[in-house]
Amino acid sequence: MKSFIIHYYTGGGDEIKTIPNCISFSRIIFSLILIFVKPLSITFYVIYIICGFSDITDGFIARTTATTSILGAKIDSMADMIMIGVLLFILYPIVNPSAIIIIWIISIAIIRLASMFISLKKYKTLACLHTYGNKITGIVLFIFPILLPYIHTTVLIYIICTVASISAIEELIIQLTSSQLLLNKQSIFK
After folding, report:
1. Is 118:172 a contact under the CB 8 Å cutoff?
2. Both 104 and 67 in a single domain?
3. Same domain, residue pair 68 and 5
4. Which among 6, 8, 114, 145 would be 20 to 30 A from 95, CA to CA?
5. Do 178 and 113 share a structural domain?
6. Is the domain of 145 the same as that of 108?
7. Between 10 and 149, where is the model more confident?
8. Do 107 and 143 have their domain in common?
9. How far is the C-alpha of 18 from the C-alpha of 156, rounded, in Å?
10. DSSP 11
């Protein structure tokens, strides 16, 4: 029974898919659906919370059932990046950030891309690490649209950019100083 919960077979092939990977993949689908929904509407928030719930459950199930994998970590990171990209696309016209904020966001993106290219050069694969800093950044990014109607946009953006800058720099340092790819490295201090 446990193996049924952990894995299911697709068709007649030998390919095994894990439930956590399917949950991560569903986040990609739900994130793309958000493009077609009115921003900050009830429907938007329902789909958005489903995306957030899937982000929590995929990793929890993978760790609980010992089905963590490099593929799963990559699907999870890809789902996170797609969700962030969709949110930027949807919320940009609503937030209308200043030039300083845009430069700050681009700088964070450049640092993150540098980390990914370092992993490509060193380990022959693009990688985003699952550090505590990246998880905190994810939480702060997740609550942004929920708090948007209640807290001044500029305050929220400064908080997000500060947290994202710290986690991006931490990931870059980890990638520069590590001798092996550690996707689940929790912190530079651990």
Report:
1. yes
2. no
3. yes
4. 114
5. yes
6. yes
7. 149
8. yes
9. 36
10. T
Same domain as 102, residue 43: no
In a domain, 88, yes or no: no
Write out the residue range of the structural domain in which residue 123 sits: 97-190
Per the structure, the count of domains in the chain is 2
Q: Are residues 121 and 179 in the same domain?
A: yes
Tokens 């966001």 locate to 105
Does residue 91 fall inside a structural domain?
no
Residue 126 backbone dihedrals phi, psi, to 5 degrees = -75, 140
Number of helices (H), then strands (E), belonging to the chain: the values are: 7, 2
Pair 53, 3: CB distance under 8 Å: no
- Predicted pLDDT at 44: 96
Under the banding of pLDDT at 50, 70 and 90, the label for residue 184 is confident
Residue 181 has which token pair?
């790819």
Please work out, in degrees rounded to the nearest 5, the angle formed at the alpha carbon of residue 110 by the alpha carbons of 134 and 35: 70
Average pLDDT, the chain: 86
- Hey, CA dihedral for 162, 88, 34, 68, is it positive or negative? negative
Q: Which residues contact 135 (CB under 8 A, 6 or more apart)?
A: none
Q: Which are the contacts of 128, defined by CB distance < 8 A and separation ≥ 6?
A: 77, 80, 81, 112, 115, 116, 134, 171, 183
